[in-house]
Amino acid sequence: MNRSFFKIITLTAVSAVLYSCGDKKAAAPNPANMPVPVNVYQAHTEKAVYHDRFPGTVTALMQVDVRAEVEGYVTGIFFKEGDRVTKGQKLYSIDDSKYRASFNTAQANVKVATSNMDQAQKDADRYTYLSQHDAVAKQTLDHAMTTLQNAKDQLTAAKQDLARTQTDLGYSIIKAPFDGTIGISQVKVGNTVTTGQTVLNTISSDNPMAVDFVVNEKQIPRFLKLKQNPPNPADSIFTILMADNSVYNGVGQISFIDRGVNPLTGTITVRLVFSNPNSLLKAGMSATVLVRNNDTAEQMLVPSKAIVEQMGEYFMYVAKDTLIPATDTAKGAPAAVSSLHAIQRKVVLGPTIADRVIVNSGIQEGDNVIVDGVQKLRPGAPINMGGQKPAAH
């Protein structure tokens, strides 16, 4: 054999030895079996003051579209958009030339009709006197009485026409129907308006203001009780959360509960009334109605960070001691070892209070709820509390 052949045999033998040694190396630990470090919170019940939340809409108690009662072109605008106006305040003027002419004509017709009636009355009085002394034919008296009645009817018609033209003339000046805030004008000077059709502007009352929200029909008894026995005005049973998440500085009272339940949604509308001295509440704005729950029963409260959401359902992990089989190396017999594991629980949640949430079902008092390290857990995963005691709130 040549030297090359011996080199090949030697390299092969060395490779085999190295391969066999590699098989005898200890396997690397599996990270999936490593305990996850966590912190826990010991669940317990306590008294909780919280608010039920309902989406609401701010509504004016009175709101009206300002329309013209006569047609013509706008000759004047006498307010500043967005200002507060008072009942009877002059807002718009419409060209009144033809209405004033009709009014003047009607006044003249009343004068003529009045003169005709006076003359007819005198004739009737004269013929009545003559008839009493048989000095005039009965037919002449009848004609005089008929003429008098016609004159009275004509005067009545003339006065009615005068009232109509006076009303039309008055409608050429448009006034505020009540105290409130006026919006942006929909017409400008020179625009032509049509009777009863053209919307000139919108006025809404601004103090107090209403907030409407809907509740499930199951809650009707609760709100009927609150309406029939209204809380102290200083009590904050009803408050609202503004769009910027600030709480409105004022409390509300139930104004009314709608006449019936919507059969399609099973809900009913409730209206609250709030004082609005600073005009912070504007018609149409969104708000969240906060209704304080006066339930005196203690509630299970846990930190919100313990919640895990999966496809619309909510879960928590609870730390539990479990026994796992092991081998007693000293005696060579099976043994049991205590180990902490994360047990998943499906929970039903109630309202959120600050950084905690009410749990209606799913956990019990004394359960060690995992609050830190939740993102790394899976059901049944081993955990390690790192020697820390269960946290109490």
Describe the structure.
The chain is built from 4 helices and 24 strands. Strand 20 and strand 21 form a beta hairpin. It folds into 3 domains: 104 residues, conserved putative lor/sdh protein from methanococcus maripaludis s2 fold (Beta Barrel), CATH 2.40.420; 100 residues, Efflux pump adaptor protein, beta barrel domain (Elongation Factor Tu (Ef-tu), domain 3, Beta Barrel), CATH 2.40.30.170; 76 residues, Helix Hairpins. The protein has 393 residues and is of the alpha+beta class. 25% of the residues lie in helices and 36% in strands. The longest helix has 36 residues. Strands 3-18-22-21-20-19 form a 6-stranded antiparallel beta sheet, with no helix packed on it. Strands 14-17-4-13-16-15 form a 6-stranded antiparallel beta sheet, covered by helices on one side.
List keywords for this structure.
Helix Hairpins, six-stranded antiparallel β-sheet, disordered N terminus, 25% helix, 393 residues, 3 domains, alpha+beta, 4 helices, conserved putative lor/sdh protein from methanococcus maripaludis s2 fold
